[in-house]
Amino acid sequence: MNQAAGASSSNPDDASLDLSFSEDGRSGTFMIGNESFPASLLDLPTVMESYKTYNDSVLIKTADIGQMIMVREEDDPAPEGIEYTHGLTPPMRDARRRRFRREPDLNAELVHRVEKHLMNIMHGVSLIDQNASVIGAGEGGKKAAPAPATKRNVQRPAANGEEAEAERSDSDESVDP
After folding, report:
1. Among 46, 81, 129, 175, which residue has the fewest nearby CB atoms (within 10 Å)?
2. Under 8 Å between Cβ of 37 and 1
3. Where do the H-state alpha helices sit in the chain?
4. What pTM was estimated for this model as a whole?
5. Stretch 19-42: mean pLDDT, rounded?
């Protein structure tokens, strides 16, 4: 491939470049001159940014690169899958395995149940109200009234209008100062 790219020819048709993809859009053929090479369109594990400079001091971002075209020799094996596991530079070798978490195995039933509970909460129905309506439906179709919530450590006013003394337990045998 290097010979075909570097060779100078007097005939401009010999040095022509062509890239065509098959129906799947991921595999194709790269033609340089009269030689053809298999090519594959692969997704990179991360998005790369490319920069350009005009004066060697100011960088201008030109593109976000998320895919690459891999051209190989005829006898080289085709890459497995649509994602390239390595990046473009040596530090990104095996980037998918080393830098990203594994996708969790999710139970479809659990996801559906949690989604249903979240939708009920968003619509203002709490899980307690939902469970009470299910229990009440079994008892003649009447919904049970929710029990009043008890408040703890609240001083109750005395019956005769005086201030109430805080309730004491049997363990509070200490003498007040």
Report:
1. 175
2. yes
3. 2-6, 95-99, 108-122, 127-137
4. 0.48
5. 91
